[in-house]
Amino acid sequence: MPNWKKVITSGSAAVLSDLTLSGVTQPEIKFNGSSDAGVDFAIRATPEGLDFYEPEDGNKIHMQIIDDGGVDAKYGLKINGTSVLSSGRALQNVSGNISMFTNNSGYKTTFRTVTAGGNTLGANETLAFSAGSNVSISESGGTVTISSTDTNTNTTYSAGNGIGLSGTTFSVSAGTGLSQTSSGLALATAGAGAATYGSTSDGTKIDTITLDAYGRVTAVATGATGDIHGVTAGTGLSGGSTSGTATLNLSHLGLESLTDPNDDRIAFWDDSEGAFGWLDAGSNISISGTTISSTDTNTQLSTSQVRAKFSAGENVTISNGVISSTDTNTDTNTVTSIRRDNTGTYRTGNINMRI
Q1: Which residue among 34, 78, 127, 156 is buried most deeply as judged by most CB within 10 Å?
Q2: Number of C-alpha atoms within 13 angstroms, CB side, residue 354?
Q3: Which residues pair with 231 in a beta bridge?
């Protein structure tokens, strides 16, 4: 070990042929400029490498030389003042192409064109996935998982009567006598088909009309009519004809002129009018259905009402309905009683009236 006090005798420079630091676990060399009192930089020997650190900045390590581990540049690598490797291990400010490097791991050096939504991604564009409705996207270890949530209730449908189902398509089943068209169901061609049937000749009638099981006319048979040559109006009728369509009208004692009275009435012969007319029910008469009824409106007087009609005159008394007279005449002719006949005339004679 040189004697440093002897080696450095003057000035600020010393030339050494060899320098060994020992005696401590982590020997170090510190560097400090005259601008401040703090130690600007230091090199510290660890058991397995060297740490280049900054004491005045919390002993922040800038670089390490690791035994059998290479150089660990904590804050990237610069060449001639230009950063070429960031702390995140990304190359920067390096010109050239991939051919500058040895591809000993089989990395892809050519890539396919990526198109999304009709747009082709540029060289510097990033392909990003966006989750739409009911879709979720997750990534783990470089694996992207796209999942969807099924919001469909998955209702199961089945074909009922008259409905056909083929795969996912429903259709109307055509039964007997029917056919399927693009517009729906149609009657299958059968029978006589569309036409005009019958005869317009005079004296011709339709004998039979033939239908199939579906109500379609399949045949019409005509024949000659009977031997009626005319229609003559009889008693109480008018009209008639010997050709074409004959019409008969009622014509009898005015009955044809009667209209619906909208009430119960009795048809009767009105001799003064010389025609039939409607007879209505008068007072106290009613008609219900086929029955005629009358209402008795005669009122029978009661005993008290009859008694009230009588008053006692001279020499006459009325007591409890008994009329008595007192004879004050001294004549030899004596009237023992007086009565009133049904004509209202008073007559003499014996009478005993109780009212």
Answers
A1: 78
A2: 0
A3: 241
Output the six-digit token pair for 28.
């170090």
Task: Tell me the average pLDDT across 139-159.
Answer: 82
**332 DSSP 8-state letter:** S
The mean of the pLDDT values for the chain is 75
Residue 173 one-letter amino acid: S
pLDDT for 11: 55
Helix-, strand-, coil-residue percentages of the chain, each rounded to 5: 5, 35, 60
DSSP string for 305-328: HHHTT----TTEEEETTEEEE---
Q: Which two tokens stand for residue 313?
A: 């005159």
Q: Record the tokens describing residue 98, joined without a space.
A: 């991939």
pLDDT digits (tens, 9 = 90+) for 12-66: 666 777 878 888 888 998 888 888 878 888 889 888 899 998 888 888 888 888 8
Q: pTM for the whole thing?
A: 0.29
Q: What angle do CA 124, 127, 132 make, to 5 degrees?
A: 150
pLDDT in tens, 125-136: 887 888 888 889
Report the chain's C-alpha Rg in angstroms.
71
Q: How far is it, in rounded angstroms, from Cα 342 to Cα 354? A: 16
Q: How far apart are CA 329 and CA 236, in angstroms?
A: 83
Q: How many CB atoms lie within 10 A of CB 64?
A: 19
3-state DSSP assignment of residue 110: coil
Contact 163, 173 (CB under 8 A): yes
Pairing type for strands 135-140 and 143-148 reads antiparallel
Confidence at 338, pLDDT banded by 50, 70, 90? low
Contact predicate 39/56, CB 8 Å: yes
